[in-house]
Amino acid sequence: MWLKPEEILLKNAFKLWVTEKDNEYFVLQRRRGYGEGGGGLTGLLVGTLDTVLDSTSKVAPFRILHHTPDSQVYWSIACGVTKEEIYQHWDWLQQNIMRTLSVFDSSEDITSFVQGKIRGLIAEEGKSSLVLEDDPEKFREALLRFEKWFELPPEEKLVTYYSCSYWKGKVPCQGWLYLSTNFLCFYSYLLGAEVKLVISWDEIWRLEKTSNVLLTESIHVLAHGEDHYFSMLLHLNETFVIMEQLANYSIKRLFDKEAFQREPALCDPLQITKRGLEAHAKSEQFRTFFRLPKEENLLEVHESFLWVPFSHFNTLGKICLSENYLCFASQDGSQCHVIIPMREVVNVEKPDSSTRALTVCVRGKRALRFSEVRDYQRLSNTIRSRCGISASPLHSASLEVSVSHSSTTLRTTQRIKAVSTEALMTVFHPQDVENLDPKMLKEKMKEQSWNIHFSEYGRGTSMFFTRKTRDLIVRGVPEALRGELWMLFSGAVNDMATHPGYYTELVEQSLGTSTLATDEIERDLHRSLPEHPAFQSDTGISALRRVLTAYAYRNPKIGYCQAMNILTSVLLLYAKEEEAFWLLVAVCERMLPDYFNRRIIGALVDQAVFEDLIRENLPQLVEHMTDLSFFSSVSLSWFLTLFISVLPIESAVNVVDCFFYDGIKAILQLGLAVLDYNMEALISCHDDAEAVTILNKFFDSVTNKDSPLPPTVQQASVGNNDKTSHFNVDISELIREAYEVQGSREFTEEKQTLCHTDAGGYNQIRVVSQEVRFSASQLDELYNLFKRQHFLSCYWTINSPALLHHDPSLAYLEQYQLGFQQFSILFFLLEPWAFCTTKSTLSLWVFRLIDENQDGLVNFKEFCCALDTLYSNSFTNKLKFLFKLHLPPGESSSLSDSDTPEEQLQWLQSRFYLTFIGRGKVDLQAYLKQWQNEILKKEETIKDLPRINQTQFIQFSKTLYNIFHGDPEEESLYRAVAHVTSLLLRMEEVGRRLQEPSSPAETSKSAHVSGEESSAEDASTTPESSDTSSPHNSQDAASDLTEVEWSFSFEQVLASLLNEPAIVGFFERPVDIQTKLAQAKAAQLKPKTHK
């Protein structure tokens, strides 16, 4: 690697460098301790310095220096990890520089010329790859170390690096942490002790910031059951954010097959940068805080003061600007923030230069004044341009938006006939204005409080959110305002405003579709709040069906998940049908990401956080119940349904109010309050069943004394019907306690955790273990190798087939599958015959044979069953497997072993694409039938195998020769194969003579065959001639015996081979499976395996 020229006064300080080559202008040196001789104690000290000190000249084992004869100053111009690399640089200097230097007169001119050339080479190299890095020169040095130490494929993109300590047991190892697109790596070398760690992001189960007595602050990584701690980080928070971003990116890209098409910084895994990840993290935090659509990105941040009219003072905070929104959040503890959609802005007044202020006018005759903005003029122009407002204070923009919106509304009015336009609660429980009972009076008082709040703080999308807003939420939202406020707090109001007519189009497009999701929706429709009158009629059921089906059509990755029906039912009670749809979008895609899918990873993450909160806030409960996994299983329904499934509906809606304002934090707080309330009862219980009973009785006793709903609408509480029940808990009191007591405690929002568990992997291992002889640990290692090989096809490509054709609705056994290229690499690493010379042909035949459904993909079960046969099965079964390789579909007539790898791959891809296109919608019944057939499938006997013809038998013999090639007993094995071949041919000839009348022609033909047999036997006895003689004999046999077709049964082949002890001993030789797995794991990521 060429280096920016740096001056070196002493070319061999402390004797750390050894000169390998030199001439008049350049010196090539080797670092002492590398290469020949090792260097003894000096080598150990040098290695330690190389690791601890951050300098490439101290790390690279080879370097080239430039000097002139009349100067004592040397310049470092190149370094290299290997001798080959540094010699390439040396040769280039000899060929391109040395001749030119002779024309210069002075040493200064020579040095300037060399330095200019080297800088030009560096600039040319860094044009594409290093231009986005903060410090390209230092990053080049780190990249050199990264490539040298970890030997990952050259496509792997280093993102950033940090100096830190890695705790191996109780001993810290000082070294370097490298974060790349797909791997977390650490390297340390201290006095001869080398520590090297490589963990792929998809293997990480947990990632969190921790602190204890020994480690004040550290990052904890849990991977494959092993704990890893990294401390002494100068920028711990920055490091953790980058690690979290990379881990989440890996999981979304590899497990969820997300392509990040709308995010340029993440769409190409080969171009990921630290700057891009940091920008993505800030945008993600920005969208989460202000509940904005996922298309928005944080573009600008400005510190400023905002005049708050209801408090009559300026509050300090930050202006955050995105493509379509202007947001402000205070930083002085007032908890005030406001969201201004650009579509609502009607004018930006001329900035005031004296106070560096600008005033933004929005609809409803409201204005927001920002002062002390450093770049106020540019911000004002930016807002104007994004809103399409000219410098003159006209309200044309507002008029244009109104006209546009009106025309869009007129266009979509005709298509809304089938869509319900009223909330179900207003249809099935209209409010009686003349009713003056205490509950209705209290409801009117709540409405009045909110109306006063609206008059002070604004109403609609530009309303101020303050601490007073939260207080009103905790007291309870009036029934009449619930839908409006849910839309506002969730951000769904913005989604609906920017997508007019979108829901109606979805309903029309999804109408009549039949998928696995629609089948599940139909099954669950009548289980959604069945006691509520709205869902005892076709009106409510039809609305629920339309919303769920439209969402499944919009987001096929999620489709439909249980618990979505319960949540949507409650949304339909208080919001119009289209509003309920956008609320569902907000919950599933923004507020509870990764909750409603097959892995429910989002719920698992929040349950892990919930367990940590229990440990911190409820220590008495932890002492009694050491296994907190009980609370995880119990609380899963709390998180998935927002307590709707466990609380009466009139109480649950108050929880949903808090959730839409505070997000998942409200659910965590309420969960802690529920456990705290039942602390004594839970401590006294003896088993899990008793604890579940206690919690169920508690939830049944929760009431809402202020609810104006009639008894026909309210759910009947089981606890209230129990005569022994003598207490009731009001939901408002419970929520208030949750906010006051639990909310006052420090919530671990900074202690974010990433929890990834591969439940599908455990299921696969459990299913496969019943059919193979591998131990549980061996199967686990095999599964990890198989999964990694699947991911290797996705690591360094943007549009890999595995990503493009991922089908999340497939059974878990088919979630990870290998195409032929990936299969052949893994089979090459794991096959038992280390000396096989025709690996590509053999792997192709094995691939065709075990690909039972002929779709060009092999799943984990098929792969393990094939390896189990070759590793641990009997001689008969191993031979039967090889025999079947030479029958269709193993040895397919449409492909021959003479085809090039490109032709073989093209054929397999065509088979795969045809199968994928023809598959259409997933048929659950077809999968069930397939599994049933596998269960009932009878064991295949040797009599069921078809006979092998002459061409296939000749190829079978060639395969045996190739398998035995290079074996210590190769000579005797070749003789045995030749003897068996000759014997079988004689047996076939004798059998034909007994069945057919003899003739002179046949006699002469048989003599010719006998002569050929003897020649084949002689030719096969020498290993050198086996590869050439076998094809020659095959061609002769095929040409001379065209008139007489002969074939063999498997029983004949088996009986003949059983008489050869050398062959039987070869196939019954035990295979060291553990060593094979360890070698495969070490070699899987080596660059040579991916060429």
Automatic annotation (TrEMBL):
It is found in: Cytoplasm, Cytosol. Residues 996-1007 have a biased composition (Polar residues). GO terms for cellular component: cytosol. Residues 838-873 form the EF-hand domain. One of its GO terms (molecular function) is calcium ion binding. Residues 476-663 form the Rab-GAP TBC domain. Transmembrane segments: none annotated. Coiled coil: none annotated. One of its GO terms (biological process) is glomerular filtration. Keywords: Calcium, Cytoplasm, GTPase activation, Metal-binding, Repeat. Residues 1017-1031 have a biased composition (Low complexity). Residues 992-1038 are annotated as: Disordered. Its main location: cytoplasm. It comes from the Eukaryota. This is TBC1 domain family member 8B. The lineage of its organism: Eukaryota, Metazoa, Chordata, Craniata, Vertebrata.
